[in-house]
Amino acid sequence: MTITRFAPSPTGELHLGHAHSALFAFAEAQGARGRFLLRIEDIDRTRCRPEFTQAIRADLSWLGLDWEEPVRIQSEHFEDYRAALDRIDAMGLLYPCFCTRKDIAREVEGAGNAPHGPDGPLYPGHCRLLSQAERTARRESGQSFALRLDMAEAVRRAGPLVWHDRDQGEQIARPELFGDVVLARKDIPASYHLAVTVDDALQGVTLVTRGQDLFEATHVHRLLQSLLGLAVPDYRHHRLLTDESGRRYAKRDRSLTLKALREAGRTPHEVRALAGFGGK
Ligand code: GLU
Ligand code: ZN
Questions:
Q1: What pLDDT does residue 92 have?
Q2: Rg (CA), the chain
Q3: Domain boundary, last residue among 202, 224, 254
Q4: 81, 184, 215, 280: which is deepest, by most CB within 10 A?
Q5: How many structural domains compose the chain?
Q6: What are phi and psi of 22, to 5 degrees?
Protein backbone atom coordinates (compact mmCIF):
# COMPACT_ATOMS: atom_id res chain seq x y z
CA MET A 1 0.00 0.00 0.00
CA THR A 2 1.44 3.35 -1.05
CA ILE A 3 0.95 6.15 1.46
CA THR A 4 2.11 9.64 0.49
CA ARG A 5 1.76 13.00 2.14
CA PHE A 6 1.95 16.73 1.53
CA ALA A 7 3.51 18.49 4.50
CA PRO A 8 3.37 22.28 4.18
CA SER A 9 4.31 24.82 6.83
CA PRO A 10 1.51 27.34 7.35
CA THR A 11 3.68 30.44 7.11
CA GLY A 12 1.86 32.07 4.21
CA GLU A 13 -0.48 31.47 1.29
CA LEU A 14 0.23 28.45 -0.91
CA HIS A 15 1.72 29.31 -4.30
CA LEU A 16 2.13 27.36 -7.52
CA GLY A 17 5.23 25.59 -6.23
CA HIS A 18 3.22 24.18 -3.33
CA ALA A 19 0.45 23.18 -5.72
CA HIS A 20 2.97 21.21 -7.76
CA SER A 21 4.24 19.47 -4.64
CA ALA A 22 0.73 18.63 -3.37
CA LEU A 23 -0.44 17.39 -6.77
CA PHE A 24 2.72 15.32 -7.13
CA ALA A 25 2.12 13.49 -3.83
CA PHE A 26 -1.58 13.11 -4.60
CA ALA A 27 -0.90 11.66 -8.07
CA GLU A 28 1.55 9.14 -6.63
CA ALA A 29 -1.07 7.91 -4.17
CA GLN A 30 -3.83 7.84 -6.78
CA GLY A 31 -1.69 6.08 -9.36
CA ALA A 32 -0.99 3.32 -6.85
CA ARG A 33 -4.55 3.25 -5.42
CA GLY A 34 -2.93 4.26 -2.19
CA ARG A 35 -3.62 6.81 0.50
CA PHE A 36 -2.82 10.51 0.60
CA LEU A 37 -2.25 12.41 3.83
CA LEU A 38 -1.94 16.07 4.69
CA ARG A 39 0.31 17.13 7.55
CA ILE A 40 0.72 20.64 8.94
CA GLU A 41 4.33 21.35 9.89
CA ASP A 42 3.85 24.14 12.38
CA ILE A 43 6.40 23.51 15.11
CA ASP A 44 7.69 27.06 14.63
CA ARG A 45 4.83 28.87 16.26
CA THR A 46 6.33 32.29 15.67
CA ARG A 47 6.21 31.83 11.89
CA CYS A 48 3.10 29.66 11.55
CA ARG A 49 -0.47 30.92 11.81
CA PRO A 50 -3.73 28.96 12.14
CA GLU A 51 -5.42 31.07 9.47
CA PHE A 52 -2.86 29.81 6.97
CA THR A 53 -3.73 26.24 7.94
CA GLN A 54 -7.35 27.00 7.13
CA ALA A 55 -6.26 28.59 3.87
CA ILE A 56 -4.22 25.51 2.96
CA ARG A 57 -7.25 23.28 3.43
CA ALA A 58 -9.42 25.61 1.38
CA ASP A 59 -6.86 25.88 -1.43
CA LEU A 60 -6.25 22.15 -1.66
CA SER A 61 -9.97 21.33 -1.69
CA TRP A 62 -10.51 23.92 -4.37
CA LEU A 63 -7.71 22.34 -6.41
CA GLY A 64 -9.58 19.06 -6.24
CA LEU A 65 -7.51 17.16 -3.69
CA ASP A 66 -8.86 15.19 -0.80
CA TRP A 67 -7.03 13.65 2.09
CA GLU A 68 -7.67 11.57 5.16
CA GLU A 69 -8.80 13.12 8.41
CA PRO A 70 -7.66 13.81 11.01
CA VAL A 71 -4.85 15.93 9.64
CA ARG A 72 -1.74 15.65 11.77
CA ILE A 73 -0.85 19.04 13.25
CA GLN A 74 2.75 18.87 14.44
CA SER A 75 2.38 21.44 17.21
CA GLU A 76 -0.03 19.03 18.93
CA HIS A 77 2.55 16.27 19.11
CA PHE A 78 5.61 17.61 20.88
CA GLU A 79 5.53 14.60 23.21
CA ASP A 80 6.31 12.33 20.25
CA TYR A 81 9.35 14.40 19.34
CA ARG A 82 10.40 14.47 22.99
CA ALA A 83 10.28 10.67 23.15
CA ALA A 84 12.50 10.44 20.07
CA LEU A 85 14.94 12.96 21.54
CA ASP A 86 15.08 11.02 24.78
CA ARG A 87 15.93 7.90 22.88
CA ILE A 88 18.79 9.51 21.00
CA ASP A 89 19.94 11.20 24.20
CA ALA A 90 20.01 7.86 25.99
CA MET A 91 22.45 6.71 23.32
CA GLY A 92 24.75 9.58 24.34
CA LEU A 93 24.48 11.24 20.94
CA LEU A 94 23.07 14.65 21.93
CA TYR A 95 24.76 17.63 23.48
CA PRO A 96 23.48 21.03 24.55
CA CYS A 97 24.62 23.94 22.40
CA PHE A 98 24.44 27.32 24.08
CA CYS A 99 25.73 29.28 21.11
CA THR A 100 23.84 32.25 19.74
CA ARG A 101 23.77 32.89 16.00
CA LYS A 102 26.44 35.51 16.59
CA ASP A 103 28.65 33.06 18.49
CA ILE A 104 28.38 30.61 15.63
CA ALA A 105 29.16 33.25 13.02
CA ARG A 106 32.23 34.21 15.02
CA GLU A 107 33.36 30.60 15.41
CA VAL A 108 32.90 29.96 11.71
CA GLU A 109 34.91 33.04 10.88
CA GLY A 110 37.60 32.08 13.37
CA ALA A 111 37.83 28.63 11.84
CA GLY A 112 39.01 30.13 8.57
CA ASN A 113 38.03 27.58 5.97
CA ALA A 114 34.95 26.27 7.79
CA PRO A 115 33.35 23.45 5.81
CA HIS A 116 29.98 24.18 4.26
CA GLY A 117 27.00 21.86 3.97
CA PRO A 118 23.72 22.08 2.08
CA ASP A 119 22.35 24.55 4.65
CA GLY A 120 25.47 26.72 4.94
CA PRO A 121 28.56 26.57 7.13
CA LEU A 122 28.75 23.59 9.45
CA TYR A 123 28.58 24.12 13.18
CA PRO A 124 32.24 24.15 14.28
CA GLY A 125 31.51 22.05 17.35
CA HIS A 126 32.43 24.44 20.15
CA CYS A 127 29.84 23.09 22.59
CA ARG A 128 30.60 19.45 21.81
CA LEU A 129 33.86 20.03 23.62
CA LEU A 130 32.41 21.54 26.80
CA SER A 131 33.02 19.59 29.97
CA GLN A 132 30.13 18.00 31.81
CA ALA A 133 30.66 20.46 34.65
CA GLU A 134 30.47 23.42 32.31
CA ARG A 135 27.28 22.08 30.73
CA THR A 136 25.65 21.66 34.08
CA ALA A 137 26.73 25.08 35.26
CA ARG A 138 25.41 26.79 32.16
CA ARG A 139 22.12 24.93 32.31
CA GLU A 140 21.67 25.75 35.95
CA SER A 141 22.35 29.41 35.33
CA GLY A 142 19.36 29.35 33.02
CA GLN A 143 21.16 29.73 29.68
CA SER A 144 19.02 28.48 26.87
CA PHE A 145 20.36 25.76 24.63
CA ALA A 146 19.62 23.74 21.55
CA LEU A 147 20.28 20.01 21.32
CA ARG A 148 22.68 18.97 18.60
CA LEU A 149 23.47 15.54 17.26
CA ASP A 150 27.07 14.41 17.60
CA MET A 151 27.19 13.57 13.90
CA ALA A 152 30.54 11.80 13.72
CA GLU A 153 29.63 9.49 16.56
CA ALA A 154 26.08 8.90 15.27
CA VAL A 155 27.42 7.96 11.84
CA ARG A 156 29.93 5.61 13.43
CA ARG A 157 27.22 3.90 15.47
CA ALA A 158 24.79 3.61 12.57
CA GLY A 159 27.33 2.25 10.11
CA PRO A 160 26.83 2.55 6.33
CA LEU A 161 23.27 3.39 5.28
CA VAL A 162 21.48 3.59 1.96
CA TRP A 163 18.12 4.91 0.86
CA HIS A 164 16.17 4.59 -2.34
CA ASP A 165 15.13 7.44 -4.59
CA ARG A 166 12.70 6.18 -7.23
CA ASP A 167 14.10 8.53 -9.85
CA GLN A 168 17.76 8.66 -8.94
CA GLY A 169 18.26 5.15 -7.62
CA GLU A 170 20.12 3.83 -4.60
CA GLN A 171 21.78 6.56 -2.54
CA ILE A 172 24.55 6.16 -0.03
CA ALA A 173 23.52 8.22 2.99
CA ARG A 174 25.89 11.09 3.70
CA PRO A 175 24.41 12.81 6.77
CA GLU A 176 27.88 14.04 7.73
CA LEU A 177 27.42 16.69 5.02
CA PHE A 178 25.30 18.56 7.56
CA GLY A 179 27.58 18.36 10.58
CA ASP A 180 26.10 18.45 14.08
CA VAL A 181 22.47 19.20 13.15
CA VAL A 182 20.06 20.71 15.65
CA LEU A 183 17.41 18.22 16.76
CA ALA A 184 15.76 20.49 19.31
CA ARG A 185 15.87 24.24 18.86
CA LYS A 186 16.34 26.71 21.69
CA ASP A 187 12.80 27.95 21.38
CA ILE A 188 11.12 24.73 20.20
CA PRO A 189 11.58 21.21 21.63
CA ALA A 190 12.02 19.72 18.13
CA SER A 191 13.40 20.59 14.70
CA TYR A 192 12.39 20.03 11.10
CA HIS A 193 14.66 17.00 10.67
CA LEU A 194 13.39 15.33 13.81
CA ALA A 195 9.68 16.04 13.40
CA VAL A 196 9.51 15.12 9.74
CA THR A 197 11.29 11.80 10.30
CA VAL A 198 9.24 10.82 13.33
CA ASP A 199 5.96 11.76 11.68
CA ASP A 200 6.58 10.03 8.38
CA ALA A 201 7.18 6.84 10.36
CA LEU A 202 4.27 7.30 12.78
CA GLN A 203 1.90 7.98 9.91
CA GLY A 204 3.11 4.96 7.98
CA VAL A 205 4.22 7.00 4.97
CA THR A 206 5.78 4.60 2.46
CA LEU A 207 6.73 7.14 -0.21
CA VAL A 208 8.03 10.57 0.79
CA THR A 209 7.69 13.08 -2.04
CA ARG A 210 9.03 16.61 -1.80
CA GLY A 211 11.08 19.17 -3.68
CA GLN A 212 14.58 18.60 -4.97
CA ASP A 213 15.75 21.29 -2.51
CA LEU A 214 15.29 18.75 0.28
CA PHE A 215 17.18 15.93 -1.44
CA GLU A 216 20.22 16.18 0.85
CA ALA A 217 18.08 16.45 3.97
CA THR A 218 17.06 12.86 3.29
CA HIS A 219 20.58 11.78 4.28
CA VAL A 220 19.94 13.11 7.78
CA HIS A 221 16.50 11.55 7.94
CA ARG A 222 17.91 8.17 6.97
CA LEU A 223 20.38 8.38 9.85
CA LEU A 224 17.61 9.32 12.31
CA GLN A 225 15.53 6.38 11.08
CA SER A 226 18.43 4.11 11.84
CA LEU A 227 19.04 5.55 15.32
CA LEU A 228 15.34 5.41 16.17
CA GLY A 229 14.61 2.02 14.62
CA LEU A 230 12.03 3.43 12.21
CA ALA A 231 10.80 2.01 8.92
CA VAL A 232 12.50 3.44 5.83
CA PRO A 233 10.20 4.82 3.11
CA ASP A 234 11.04 5.29 -0.55
CA TYR A 235 11.64 8.81 -1.83
CA ARG A 236 10.94 10.96 -4.86
CA HIS A 237 12.27 14.51 -5.12
CA HIS A 238 10.37 16.57 -7.67
CA ARG A 239 11.55 19.52 -9.71
CA LEU A 240 10.99 23.02 -8.38
CA LEU A 241 8.71 25.25 -10.42
CA THR A 242 10.20 28.54 -11.50
CA ASP A 243 8.84 31.77 -12.94
CA GLU A 244 9.72 33.04 -16.43
CA SER A 245 13.05 34.38 -15.20
CA GLY A 246 13.97 31.01 -13.72
CA ARG A 247 13.44 31.96 -10.10
CA ARG A 248 11.74 29.59 -7.72
CA TYR A 249 8.27 30.57 -6.62
CA ALA A 250 8.27 31.95 -3.14
CA LYS A 251 6.14 33.92 -0.78
CA ARG A 252 7.04 37.17 -2.53
CA ASP A 253 5.15 36.06 -5.66
CA ARG A 254 1.84 37.38 -4.44
CA SER A 255 0.12 37.17 -7.80
CA LEU A 256 0.85 33.45 -8.01
CA THR A 257 -0.74 32.36 -4.78
CA LEU A 258 -3.61 29.95 -5.29
CA LYS A 259 -5.87 32.49 -3.61
CA ALA A 260 -4.89 35.25 -6.02
CA LEU A 261 -5.27 32.97 -9.03
CA ARG A 262 -8.69 31.85 -7.82
CA GLU A 263 -9.78 35.44 -7.21
CA ALA A 264 -8.55 36.37 -10.67
CA GLY A 265 -11.04 33.87 -12.08
CA ARG A 266 -8.73 30.96 -12.91
CA THR A 267 -10.38 27.55 -12.69
CA PRO A 268 -8.90 24.66 -10.69
CA HIS A 269 -8.22 22.92 -13.98
CA GLU A 270 -6.20 25.91 -15.23
CA VAL A 271 -4.27 26.18 -12.00
CA ARG A 272 -3.45 22.48 -12.01
CA ALA A 273 -2.06 22.98 -15.51
CA LEU A 274 -0.01 26.00 -14.38
CA ALA A 275 1.37 23.81 -11.62
CA GLY A 276 2.52 21.21 -14.13
CA PHE A 277 -0.44 18.85 -13.92
CA GLY A 278 -2.35 19.63 -17.07
CA GLY A 279 -4.92 17.38 -18.68
CA LYS A 280 -6.17 15.88 -15.45
N1 GLU B 1 7.36 21.35 5.73
C2 GLU B 1 8.38 21.37 4.76
C3 GLU B 1 8.27 22.60 3.88
O4 GLU B 1 7.30 23.30 3.97
C5 GLU B 1 8.37 20.15 3.85
C6 GLU B 1 8.61 18.91 4.60
C7 GLU B 1 8.86 17.70 3.74
O8 GLU B 1 8.13 17.49 2.76
O9 GLU B 1 9.75 16.96 4.06
O10 GLU B 1 9.15 22.88 3.11
ZN1 ZN C 1 27.32 25.76 20.73
A1: 98
A2: 20
A3: 202
A4: 184
A5: 2
A6: -65, -45
Share of the chain above pLDDT 70, in %: 99
Considering only CA atoms, which of 70, 55, 72, 66 is closest in space to residue 29? 66
Q: How far apart are CA 262 and CA 14, in angstroms?
A: 12
The string of pLDDT tens digits covering residues 168-217 is 999 999 999 999 999 999 999 999 999 999 999 999 999 999 999 999 99
Same-domain pairing of 49 and 137: no
Report the atom number in ligand 1 closest to the C-alpha of 217. Answer: 9
Do 83 and 108 lie in one domain? The reply is: yes
Count of alpha carbons within 13 angstroms of residue 21, beta-carbon side: 26
The three-state secondary structure class of 37 is strand
Ligand 1 centroid – CA 211 distance (Å): 8
Q: Are residues 174 and 111 both part of a single domain?
A: yes
Residues 12, 35, single domain; the answer is yes
Give the pLDDT confidence of 24-62 residue by residue, as tens digits: 999 999 999 999 999 999 999 999 999 999 999 999 999
Looking at all shown ligands, the one closest to residue 235's CA atom is: 1
Query: Do 269 and 34 contact (CB within 8 A), yes or no?
Result: no
**CATH classification of the domain holding 14:** 3.40.50.620
Q: Which residues line ligand 1 (CB under 6 A)?
A: 7-9, 41, 196, 210, 214
> Domain range for residue 268?
1-76+242-280
State the pLDDT confidence band at 112, using cuts at 50, 70 and 90.
Answer: confident
| Average confidence (pLDDT) over 254-269 | 93
The pTM assigned to this predicted structure is 0.96
Question: Residue with the nearest Cα to atom 10 of ligand 1?
Answer: 8
Are residue 141 and residue 39 in the same domain, yes or no?
no
